[in-house]
Design brief:
The complex is a heterotrimer of chains A (112), B (151) and C (181). With 112 residues, chain A is an all-alpha fold. Chain A has a single domain, classed as Helix Hairpins, CATH 1.10.287.3510. Chain A is 71% helix and 0% strand. In chain A, helix 1 packs antiparallel against helix 2 and helix 2 runs antiparallel to helix 3. The longest helix of chain A is centred in the C-terminal third of the chain and has 32 residues. Chain B is mainly alpha-helical. Helices cover 67% and strands 0% of the residues of chain B. In chain B, helix 2 crosses helix 4. With 181 residues, chain C is mainly alpha-helical. Chain C has 7 helices and no strands. The longest helix of chain C has 22 residues. In chain C, 36% of the residues are buried. Classes of the chains: A mainly alpha (112), B mainly alpha (151), C mainly alpha (181). At the A-B interface, helix 3 of A face helix 2 and helix 4 of B.
């Protein structure tokens, strides 16, 4: 329970960076932190006390495993998060080339 | 983008092959040990990036062809999709048609999973390497060094 | 379970440092610290596949962010928004935490998940798929259709980056029309 709430705190820190900062790179960083928090929440929800990693060992029958389904969902989500981050960075670079700044307010003032 | 110092280049020459080998190991053993196509693909992409960061663009272009990116991404995707479509012959999408053969805990087991791992690794490695090349070698029109490179 | 709290506290502190520092380079490096803490967290939570993937993805993410930000001439972020935004956000954060607390009381306790679907996968992974790694068996056999969709998302994002950053076929800034400004 406390771990879940700490994870929500991590999520809120990332959300603060997205909402309150005006720098675009800081917003990208905030999105990254939100993504970490969500991935971690999935894995936390599937943890079983005293269980093993979901990989069969030879000659050891009757092993108890943690929940493998959230891990399988998160595994692809991590790599996709990298792709999304790269897409956001590309957009930021184009915006910087066009407006000469990363600041959202100044971009809004310039109007092209 | 220029290369780094002599020490970095010398050490890169020794380590880059090991990193590539480790990536291929992770991909091929994805069904018996931790790892798999996604992690192994990123490691393979990192070995290319390592080469490109250490030697600079001009040197790296000699050993890495540009069309490796445009080759790997669609080939990986089409390979994955065609493995899925071949499964239709067995009745369902992604039918594991080799699963009856092979012993568990050996490399040649688990049917289509090693083939899918290789396809995903090709796709991830070439895609992420292409993203890195495009993002890091892009120069703004206002940058001073752009004109020097063009000359 | 003590080490989980320690790593989690480390991640929260590193995230706070990343958000509140004004230098962009130190901020990006702090995000790297958060990612490495997440990698250790995955390892402690018995997810070695995720730990490997998170480690290498974090390194690549750090390289991309640093090469994109540093050398563009902007190294310091501007001051964050006004006190009004901060106050309203902190009120929202408190409400959100309270709602999350109320929701988590309905969830199964930490350490005892409901594995209704996963039991099927665990029983059949070795006998039907013959793969020792259950996670790989799920993403490539039982749920291969999901993985195909996620590979498509990755393909789309890569194509998006290439389309945004392309220089060939794009008009030069001085010969751009007024319409596309």
């Amino acid at each position: 329970m406390i771990l879940f709430l700490m994870d929500i705190v991590l999520f809120l820190i990332g959300l603060y960076a997205v909402v309150a900062h005006r720098n675009l790179i800081k917003k990208v960083i905030g999105f990254g932190i939100i993504e970490y928090a969500v991935n971690l929440f999935f894995v936390l929800a599937g943890y079983k006390t005293g269980a093993d990693a979901p990989i069969f060992e030879k000659n050891i029958p009757g092993m108890i495993f943690v929940d493998p389904l959230p891990q399988a969902l998160v595994l692809t989500s991590i790599v996709i998060g990298l792709g999304v981050t790269a897409l956001m960075v590309a957009l930021c670079i184009r915006i910087y080339q066009h407006y000469g700044t990363f600041d959202v307010n100044r971009i809004k003032d310039l109007k092209g | 983008m220029k290369g780094m110092s002599l020490i970095v280049k010398r050490i890169t020459r020794y380590t880059v092959g090991l990193i590539l080998l480790f990536g291929i190991y992770i991909v091929l053993h994805g069904h018996i040990t931790p790892g798999g196509g996604f992690a192994g693909g990123v490691i393979i992409a990192l070995s290319f990036i390592h080469l490109m960061l250490a030697f600079g663009r001009e040197e790296a272009d000699k050993s890495i062809k540009e069309n490796i990116i445009s080759f790997g991404e669609p080939v990986g995707g089409l390979m994955f999709l065609s493995i899925a479509l071949i499964g239709l012959a067995g009745g369902v999408f992604f039918f594991n048609f080799f699963a009856s053969k092979g012993e568990p805990f050996s490399i040649l087991s688990a049917g289509i999973i090693p083939l899918c791992n290789i396809a995903i690794a090709l796709k991830v490695a070439s895609g992420l390497f292409g993203v890195f090349v495009v993002l890091s070698l892009f120069r703004l029109s206002g940058d001073k060094k752009t004109d020097e490179i063009k000359k | 379970m003590f080490e989980l709290y320690v790593v989690m506290a480390f991640m929260i502190i590193a995230a706070i440092v990343a958000v509140f520092l004004r230098g962009l380079l130190s901020s990006v490096i702090s995000v790297g610290a958060v990612g490495m803490g997440l990698c250790v967290m995955f390892l402690l939570l018995k997810a070695p596949d995720l730990a490997i993937t998170q480690l290498v993805v974090e390194i690549l993410c750090l390289i991309i962010l640093i090469r994109a930000t540093i050398g563009r001439g902007v190294s310091r972020a501007t001051r964050p928004s006004s006190a009004w935004v901060i106050a309203s956000f902190s009120i929202f954060a408190l409400v959100f935490l309270f709602a999350a607390y109320a929701a988590f009381k309905e969830m199964p306790v930490f350490g005892a998940p409901i594995m209704r679907v996963a039991d099927f996968y665990i029983q059949n992974a070795l006998s039907q798929v013959k793969a020792a790694n259950i996670v790989t068996a799920i993403i490539l056999d039982f749920r291969g259709y999901d993985t195909l969709g996620e590979a498509t998302v990755l393909f789309t994002s890569v194509i998006g980056v290439l389309a945004i950053m392309r220089t060939i076929g794009r008009k030069k800034p001085n010969e751009r029309d007024e319409s596309d400004c």
